[in-house]
Amino acid sequence: MMPQIVAIGADHAGYELKGVLKRDLADMGVEVLDLGANSSDPVDYPDVGQAVASTVADGKAGLGVLICGTGIGMTIAANRHHRVRAALCRSAEDAEMARRHNDANVLALGARTTTTAAARECLKVFLTSDFGGGRHAKRVAKLG
Fold this sequence. Notes:
Number of helices: 6
Structural class: alpha/beta
Helix content: 40-55%
Largest sheet: 5 strands, parallel
Oligomer: single chain
Strand order of the largest sheet: 2-1-3-5-4
Shape: globular
Number of strands: 5
Low-confidence stretches: none
Radius of gyration: 14 Å
Mean pLDDT: 94
């Protein structure tokens, strides 16, 4: 089920891609909470990652999207939060499996390592894929 609200954040490396994905989200009828960065001026990715992760963990957004140069830093920052399962995805298949098998609630993308077209497809698939439950539910529950 498509979330009604998505929190999105990027550091300076992901600022441009964030703009593209915000437009895609709006076109899908999703309300966007933009939690920074607001320009391509340098910012610390952990601050943005924490803001998006907190928003998702607190239930203020159904899903989150984080973008930095590689997506690695944002994934680490987000996964420090209880109830957040951030997945670094580079393909639509990664995005689908992250949702279906891992109940990921934050999509992390690398602006320098993923094409814009691939990032847009990851976003679309991430938002339209649901957790499969079943045998995966007990495994996800172990994550806390």
